[in-house]
Amino acid sequence: MPQALLDEDLIARPGGRLEITTPALVLDLDALEANIAAMAEAAAAQGIALRPHAKTHKCIAIARRQLDQGALGLCCAKLGEAEALADGGLDSFLLTSPVTTARRIERLLDLKARCRELLVVVDDAENLRQLGAAAAARGAALDLLIDVDVGQHRTGVADAEQALALAAAIATHPNLVLVGLQGYAGHLQHVAGYDERRSASHAALDRLGAVKTALETAGHACPLVSGGGTGTHAFDHEAGLLTELQVGSYIVCDVQYDAVTLRADGVPPFRPALFVYSRVVSASHDGFVTIDAGSKTVSTDGPLPRVAFGADQGAAYAISGDEFGRLELPPGSSAPKVGDLVALQVPHCDTTINLFDHYHCLRGDALVALWPIEARGASG
Amino acid sequence: MPQALLDEDLIARPGGRLEITTPALVLDLDALEANIAAMAEAAAAQGIALRPHAKTHKCIAIARRQLDQGALGLCCAKLGEAEALADGGLDSFLLTSPVTTARRIERLLDLKARCRELLVVVDDAENLRQLGAAAAARGAALDLLIDVDVGQHRTGVADAEQALALAAAIATHPNLVLVGLQGYAGHLQHVAGYDERRSASHAALDRLGAVKTALETAGHACPLVSGGGTGTHAFDHEAGLLTELQVGSYIVCDVQYDAVTLRADGVPPFRPALFVYSRVVSASHDGFVTIDAGSKTVSTDGPLPRVAFGADQGAAYAISGDEFGRLELPPGSSAPKVGDLVALQVPHCDTTINLFDHYHCLRGDALVALWPIEARGASG
Which residue of A96, A225, A239, B223 has the fewest CB atoms within a 10 Å radius of its CB? Predict the structure, then answer.
């Protein structure tokens, strides 16, 4: 990217923040590190492990910081993500989506050959048969988690009966090993109220627990139980069922999570760490200005971005097409001029990050690094 | 991207369509070429020129096909887009957004030095001053269009008075040349009804025409008047004002444009040419299956994608998170199995294309090329 290359020569210079070519994805390293430490501390206090989800950041530098703070390994949503991170030397992954089709399973086995640990979920008998046949053909062993639908109705077996059939097939296959279960309640992570989210989460974990009991009763041990997320991390441990949390968004705390009461005391445990920097490109009218960040640079699947600085309090962002945003200015506020910097807190982090090739990393006001987003677009 | 590299060995093999690693952006070359020819024919019949907008496709191979069919040059929304296309040897651009800030203006002049033609819009007096100073410092001349707001309230001068002030400043600057006007009615392109869109478009062009008259009366010639789009292309010429059309989306005809009556006779002039290929990854429940295309692979700023093939008529797509989609199956329909291919017509082409690195190009059922999307993510 031409603009990213241009920004390289600004690194470690004072005033870097002002010179960043917009639109740019800007990461506040102090806030990122504080968030990683806060989650590590919370999990340690709960006696639960962390396997953070790399689908959020897609970035080797951030993954390394999570591992340095005690994470067991990384979750990836897609095989391509794990491949991109493995290219940077990372070697422990849980693939949280089924890996289907013959060619993708070959890639899975290639990845397995260069990993210390590779876990993959399964929820389908025919997919399991393909995994077993491919592993046998390569003389490899695959470690599997049965994915359990705990209410999101996306992936996962629908009931204990389906889980038992998969476990039985795994048990009889010499190249497949059942290591546990996955149950991810993605549909509950953004329930705004703490108590409502906690009750719903316990109900979801009850479904997962019932499947675990059925498997164990049938003689299938499930030592690893993976699930949870940023929205439920404060109480995911309470049921004593999950052995690890798949938290992702906590690292940057987007607008969507800012609307969620994450802790019982109401104190936000994480700080906003990720912004889209933008600049005013047109200011011909009273009452609004146009900035250079639209739906190609902030995702539109969540709430709207929030103006973090660069315009008066109360200025509201609206998408104004693929390339532009509109800042509606409150009456009587002073209008930013063409060229002025406006920082937007990212609305939904995962999908916004996936639009960029680099993080522009700030330490205070100085641009100190450009971190590649190695797994951007690796959806296959 | 690992999956793209893997797909290279399928090119020109029969059955390529079935082997494509999903999710993938798939371009039907027959439909693309028919669409490019249909627009070229329509413009020729109207006696108007085409300067197609590359913000849609961001791809050198498609740009070349448009130029081969008589396009004057290309529009780009952002400087970074034009830089990426110039790296492939393209050399005539109209930058349809203001180019602001000192560093970006230096890049503009660098680009100018390697182009046959480079036009840029302006709507702000201070930005104009910076452009003039930078051009003078380099001994270069910049060809400018005054951008006129014709009702979208995004970029462009608000009235003839602002345009006259800019034209006067350009006229007195030895390094700046006024070549004409831009007036783009982006807010009207998707008005569904033909007659309503035509009336609104004529009203917008009346605003542009009034500015042109004011400038010419003051002695400022405006030989080039650029505007129009896919939604208004059938009648953009009628006012006799525009000299060229900035059409973009016609090349692929997304779900959004499929809902618009583009020609007076109601016959759709363009064919759907762009799809996201996806596969079923989970089928544990009755009534729906989960596919591997979510909000990281189909944009969410427009309508929902439409199922083109791979599931029964009536199957409806819904986003099911960043990585997944849900296909709701009509009662009694046969459910696709895990691994089955499902093709989605792209909902909004510009923002969906910007999520991918390559087009997988089909000729009939054979994968015949992978075209890089050189300007993907080039938003700066």
Answer: B223
